[in-house]
Structures are given as structure tokens and as C-alpha cells.
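My main concern about presentation is that the manuscript never shows what a single data entry looks like. An entry of this sort, consisting of the sequence and the corresponding C-alpha cells, reads as follows:
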Amino acid sequence: MPENRPAPPAGQRGDQGEPALELLVHGVGGTTPQEMLGDPRTVRITGDDTAGIHRRTDDADAESRFGEYGYSGGLTADRSADPRTGPSADRVRQRPIPEAYCWSNLTSGNGARALWLLLLPFMVANLAHWMRPAAPARHRGQRVYDVLVRLLALSLTVLLTAAACEVALDLVAWQCAASERCARGKSWLGPLTEGWWASPGRRLVLAALVPAALTALLWWLSHRTWSAYESASPPPRPPGPARPLPGGERPALSLPGFWYGRRLVSRLRAAHTAAGLLTVATALLAAAAAHDMRPGGGTAPQTFGRVLAVVLVAGWAATVLVAVRKGRTESEPDERIDRWASKVLPGAALGALALTAVYAAWPRPGWTSSAQLPGTGVFAWLALLQGALAAAIAVTAYVLHRASPPGSCAGRCAMGGLGGAAVALLACALGGVLTGGVAQRVADWLDKGGTPGVAGGAIAGPPVLLSWQAAAIPVLLLVVVVFLLGAAVRAGRTRRRLTPRIVDSYEGEPRELESRSRRIARVVAWARLTDSAPALVASVTVATVLLGAGALAGAARTGLPPGPAAAAWPGPLPALAQAVQGLGSWLMGAMVVLLVAMGRRAYRDAAARRTVGILWDVGTFWPRAAHPFAPPCYAERAVPDLTWRMCTWTARTGGRLVISGHSQGSVLAAAAVWQLDPDTRGRVALLTYGSPLERLYGRWFPACFGPAPMRALSEEVDCWRNLWRLTDPIGGPVMPGEDGGQEVDRGPLRDPLHYGRTPEHPLPAPILGHGDYQADPAFDAERAALLDRLDRLAEGDEPPCVPAQSERRPEQGPERRAGAGPAG
């Protein structure tokens, strides 16, 4: 393999020539090595089927063909006489060896991974952890923020397990198995209606296998995905001192242990597994104890029930303590495992569940099941607890935002630093929709001849609160539709304002019909709508708070679903309430099916994958620091892969390397460069394009990608270029308004490259938007300038890091970089 060739001696490198490598990192969408390298014949030189590094077949041994004039693999040399923009006249500049890192199988893979979308609430809660404001790490509020988010994440696991208990224990074993009307025609209910298992307690024990198996499945998936995705260790060399932030701290992403959270994930996995098992045990105990605590229930059962209650309370206390303990050591890769928490706690919870199952299955003559299972009021208490935690997170985030150093946010933080609190609340809302939707649909399926919860039905149905929450969904969707309509109106106004200015940005080109300008202006206007995401999240959050409070109040005050509760209202309101309840119930169930269907289509269809890929990849980019059952973090495999490749290649060849990242790949590239030691970083240049580093990550994750960390990274890397377009809905400048922004950002680039038809370009040039940045001549120019800069640094000549263009084009003026111009 070429990477195993020993580096030439230092004294011989000048004669043999030092190789140059371009390490390409793709974005979302499942790009193939053939597409990235522009050649149908490729070979994987290292890695596996999940993530690997590929080259063109002709370039497999390209290092051995480096001579006095560099890489000679059939590429044309570029001799530039401009000492400011590129190599000098006596310097031969040729294209580097192209190499592609393909990581698409980390997030796409087979269609079965679409089921990960059902873990969406867990992923969103994990995002809230990383959205904390950029206050100093030593601020006490940071610890409080982390504890609150982890408690909210733990409540989501309890909510999921409680919903499984609601379906299996309450609707099936307690209600339907005890109702002759409901059980008629359901042969699969035979074990619950006849024989030894027919008593209520034993029916509940048998049904408890479903939520217990669900908890075990989540534990297994978390453990398995850790082994496949997140167990990659960083290179065994310290990164060295990084450029400190204004507060004197090192950027989080430069810490050696940031991408290796094994100890924390192991402990959180144990805590959430124990929470799931204890939730099942609590449901069994609540049902059996409600019967035993009645007058004449017997002294022995009551005593045993009280002892079990104490055991479960102690188990819950231990689970909460393990979940909120600090254990993410980022200053170094932490290989330790908290064996007590990781092994003893889940085993103890399983033992408590077994004892509770024996207690619930004990013979109780005369025990019958009716109405709803005792303990279903837990859903209301969970909603109150999650609302209180979200409010506490918001208050803590506000305090942290106020304590952030000047310039750490630059007025661009989403929702004024409250983005994490809003996302945490939306995670709870998503969890309520998914769990409530399943319960509603199962109840409707069991009671085909009636409506659950309404007089005359075969079963009492799910808790009333779930019906009220279902009725809130159509109203919430109406809020979203109104916002989207308003955004479309704003986009139309922006298009009309920009249309007359489009043609002026293409000086010296033939004019065409106004439709061309309208088309370009429309793309620019719609691309700008990405910046409206914080307003949309804020609107949905406010509506969720109001509707959730209304649902809680309505369910507590009436004890009836919205339809029957509104029966005495005047005019058409009763019919409207019934319609909203029915529509909401169907929407809750449909959203579960839609998520699975959308996920399967996204993993099979490239266009659909690009549509939803950016949001999914943002969610799974971050380590599982709050919820261990969230989908796996692909960056804990990808970032060490890239770091290892850059370290080993530069050490063995002594050559130059430019890591070139598009879209989400630019985030991975920046994170990998941050992990390099200073010597390796001195031989590496960074080229990003279509990058969401500031537009998405900097606004929503200011502690890791805010202005201060980005400024520190630009000072760490000897030369960094970022290309962007106004027509790009995802990418943008990475340092807008910064003193160093003019040195890092080049743009907006023209898109399309040509306005009208010319003899050289007789056909209309396409509007590229977020893709095909390599088609712009600026890409090759900037890549060559970066490599030449590395040459000059190696020779001790350090020119200023300036853009590569030989003359500043009209679209490159300051007003264009600020985004004031209509077209790139």
C-alpha cells in the first residue's frame, strides 16, 4: 500500500519531490467514490465497507511517481507568474493526488436503519445538551444545565417505557383481555383469557415482557452501535496546546477526549436501562398494591408491597444519581469503566423487576380488572415534570448566555441562547406524539366497533390526557402552515426586489429575458429562508407550551376526552372539538408510520436522502452525552479516521495535504484538523465549501462552533479557505463580520457562472446552489494557492494568506461578502 512506503530522507526530498494529497470529504447524500473522484475505476486503500478511503485505480501507487516536478499522473502542470496569487514562475504547480473518504454508510446503510427515526426524541434531547451557550466551562450554570438536560433525557426513556406499558399492560392485558366484546375474535389473546394466566396479576406479568424486551432491545442497540461506530480511538499522540478562547480555555473540539466518550455512554446506558426496567416494575407494583391496600387486603401482601416500594424508590434514587454524575473527561481519551454503575445497577433493577413480577403474580381470589390500569396518571405527572425541566433549562441558558464572554455570540446565537431549551421542549413534544400515537392507534384497533374512551366502547381506552394532546396536534400544524405561508410571501417579495439587480452583477455578458433573472432571484430568495429556522422553532415552541398547558388543564378539569367534554358548548363547538380530537388521533398514529416510511425512502432514494439528510446528520454528529439510546454518533468514527489518515500520511511521506470538505464534510474536516498535533497541522491546509459551520452550527451550537472557536481555528490553521454562494441554502461564510473573515471566506461566488448565452457557452449555465463547487474555477485556484502556501511555509517564506484570484471581481467586494448583493 502507498501509505506503507517509508518517507524519503530529509536531504533527498528536494530531489525526489514531496507529494501533495487532496483528501476529499463528502457531505450528505451517500456520494460514491466514483462520483467524488470522477473515475469509474476506484480502489479502496484503507478502511472497510462502512467507511473507507478510496483512490482512482491509476493513483493507487501515486507517491512512487513523484519526481523533481511533483505528481506526474497525466495531469497538466500550471505555471503561474503571479507571486501573490500562486507559485512563482520557476515553481511547478500540479494537482495533488485525489483521495476520497466515504462515510455515507455510517448514516445511510441499509433500509433497516430507517427505524432509527423512531428514536428521534432521544436524538433531539441529545442535541439540547450541545446547544448550551458559550459561557466559561467553570461557570456553575454549565453543570446545572448538563444535569437538567440529562434528567429530561431520562424522563423520555421513562415516557417510552410507560407508553409500552400502557399498550401491553393496560390496553391489552388489563382492559381488552377482561372484556368479552374486545377479546372476541382475537385468538392471540387466548393465553391471557384462559388457564393459569387468566388472573389479572398474571396477565400483567406476561404482558410486562413486552416493555422489558423493548428496554433490552434499546440496551443492545446502544451497545452494538458503540462497538461499530464510536469505539475508534484517536491517534496515540497528544494534540499539543491549542489556541485558547477569550476566557483562557481550550476549544472543546480540540480536546483529545472529545470524540471518545466511552465511559459516559456506558454509565448513561446503564442508568437508562435501569430506568426502563424500574418503570415496568413500578407499573406492576402500582396495579397489585392498589388491590392489596384496600381494607381486608391481607397483612402479608401489604407488607411485601411496602418493602418492594422501598426497594424501587432506592433503585430510582440510584438511577438518577448515576445519570446526573459528571463523567465526560474530554482532556484525554478515558478508557475507564464505572463497573458498579454499568453492571450492578441494571442487574439490580432486573432483580427488582423479577421480585415485583412474583408479587404481582401471587394468587388473589376475587381480583378483577375494570376501567383503566391503576397508575396511568403518570403521563400527566411526566408532562408536568418535563415542562418544569424545560423551564429550568431555559432559565439556566439565559444565565449562561448573559455570562458568555463578549464576542462569543456576536448577536447570531439562535433564539438568544435559548435554542437548547426550545429543542428540549420539542423533544418532549415529539416523545408525546409518538407514544400517544401508538397508544391511540392500538386502542382503536382493539375496539373496532366503538371509540375508546367514549361511552359504549368495549374498553375504557388510553388516558384522557393522550386524547387532549392528540387534539392539540391539528392546531400546532396550523401554526406551522401559517408560518410557512408567511415565509413564502417573504421569499416572493425578496425575489421581486432582487430581480432587477441580478443582471447588473454580470458585467460584460449579454442580456437575456427577465425570466432568467427571476429564476436566479427565486433561488437566492428561497436559500435565505434557512435563516428563518430560529423563528420557526420559536413559534412552534410557544404554541407547544400553550397547547400542552391547555391539554393538561382540560384533562384534569373534565376527566373526559375533548369531544365529550365539549358536548355542552354552544353552536358548532362540540362538533368541532370532536373533529379535532378524531383528526389529531389519526395524525398521531400517522406520524409514526410516516417517520418509518420517510426513513426507508430516504435511505433508498438519493433525492429524498439529500432532503432530510442535513437535519439527520446534524443530530447524529454529536456524541451521545445526554441520551445513550439516541442514534449513534458517526463523527466518533469519522473524525478519528480522518485524523489518523492525515497524521500517518504526512509522517510517512513528508508531503503536503489539503483536506477538502463539502457541506457536512466540512464540519468533519474542521473537527479533524482541530485534533491534529501542531507539527502535522503545519503541513495541512483546510478547504471548505458549502459549509454550514457558521450558518447552522455556529448559531445553534455556540459553545463549540461560535465566533470565538472559529477564530481560534483560523489562527491554528496556517491557511484556510471557505467558498460559498448566495444560492446555497445550507452553506455560507464561516466568519462573517470578523477581522479574519476576509482571509478565510471567499464569496459569494457567481451562480450561475454565466448569465446568458455566449459563443463560448452557447447553452444556459445551470444554477448550482449547494452542489458542484468544483465546477467553479475558484475551487482549483484556491486549492493550488493553499498547497503553494504550505510550500512557502516549509521554506520559511510566509506570505500573507490572501485569496487566490488575480483580480478582485465585482462580486467579491465587501458589500457582496456581507450578503447584500443578489447573486453570487
Q: What stands out?
A: DSSP finds 28 helices and ten strands in the chain. The first helix runs from residue 13 to 16. The beta strands are 20-25, 42-47, 52-56, 66-67, 70-71, 97-102, 656-662, 684-689, 720-723, 745-746.
